[in-house]
Amino acid sequence: MRDNSRRFGAPADLGIRLIILVLVAVLLMALQQTGRLGTLEGAVAAVMSPGQLGLSSLTDRVAQTVSTLRNFRNLQERTAELESINRSLLAETLRLQEIERENQRLRELLSFSETRPGIELRGGQIIARVIGRDSNNFLNFVMVDLGSRHGIEVGMPVMNNQGLVGRVSEVTNISSKVLLISDPLSTVNAILQSSRLTGVVVGVAGGDPVMGFIPQGTLVGVGEVVLSSGMGGNFPKGIPIGQVREVRQRDFEVFQEAVVVPIVDFGRLESVLIVTNFEPLEFVPALDSPAAGTSP
Predict the structure, then answer these.
(1) Closest CA to 125 of 140, 148, 109, 114
(2) What pTM value is reported for the model?
(3) What was the pLDDT predicted at 290?
(4) Same domain, 143 and 252
(5) For 92, 208, 213, 219, which has the most beta carbons within 10 A of its beta carbon?
(6) E runs forming strands in the chain
(7) Separation of alpha carbons 228 and 230, rounded Å
């Protein structure tokens, strides 16, 4: 019975809905004819507008967020690109600075060479520093990138624009070992610039070289410049060696001696000049008497 009542009740409900729709249509037509339909539309729009405005505002915020994220991604990419460019420019700047420093050193060496036209000089870049043979790891020799194929021979003096560095002690085809004046095996006949006293500068392991065999009788001043004397034929004359830091003098001894601070900073040595037209003697005669040490 229930099923039949529902079945027979369905057309009645449909009829009611049709009647309502017809009445609404007639009402809308009447409102349109009387000009009151706009008032109804305004009321409906007033009811619906807050939701529409909220939806529009939410859409705008979403669009702004998406745009901000896109701009941030672009900014990150641009920042990474600029950082890469900056690193490249920094590397190039450092390279150019190093080239400028090298050019400055070479200009100084060239100027030094031009002031000594009687000496043939050949420049070499130091490619390696070698630890000395003593147990304290002091720097006593360096390797340079010139060898026998460049005309380098054992015994040739080595200097830079500051002063005396040492002399060539070993030679290969493409490189040479330079024994520094700080090495205990090194001896250089020297002269004091002001007092004109002569002596022999000998290297000291772990310390500054010492100028010995200085005749007594004349006061040696601290700060006095020490030059190569040219005696013995192992080094050209007049090359700066260093300055007197301390004088050791006792009246009962035949000679006095002076501690000499080298003018060349061996720890920062980068470029050297090798004298190629100088023929050194194989041995340096020792100064064993005051008379031998007084000749300039």
Answers:
(1) 109
(2) 0.59
(3) 36
(4) yes
(5) 213
(6) 121-130, 141-144, 157-159, 164-171, 176-180, 187-192, 198-204, 207-215, 225-228, 240-248, 255-262, 271-275
(7) 6
d(CA 291, CA 68): 93
Q: What is the span of the domain harbouring residue 141?
A: 121-293
Q: Which of 189, 147, 150 lies closest to 169 in space, CA to CA? A: 147
Asked if residue 242 lies in contact with residue 260, where contact means CB atoms within 8 angstroms, the answer is yes
Residue 243 near residue 260 (C-beta atoms within 8 A): yes
> Do residues 139 and 286 both lie within one domain?
yes
Out of 25-34, 160-169, 188-197, 227-236, pick the least confident.
25-34
Distance between CA atoms of residues 260 and 245, nearest Å? 6
Residue 89 lies inside a defined structural domain of this protein: no
- pLDDT digits 0-9 by tens, 119-163: 666 656 554 444 434 434 555 888 888 889 988 899 999 988 889
232 half-sphere exposure, CB direction, 13 A CA radius: 23
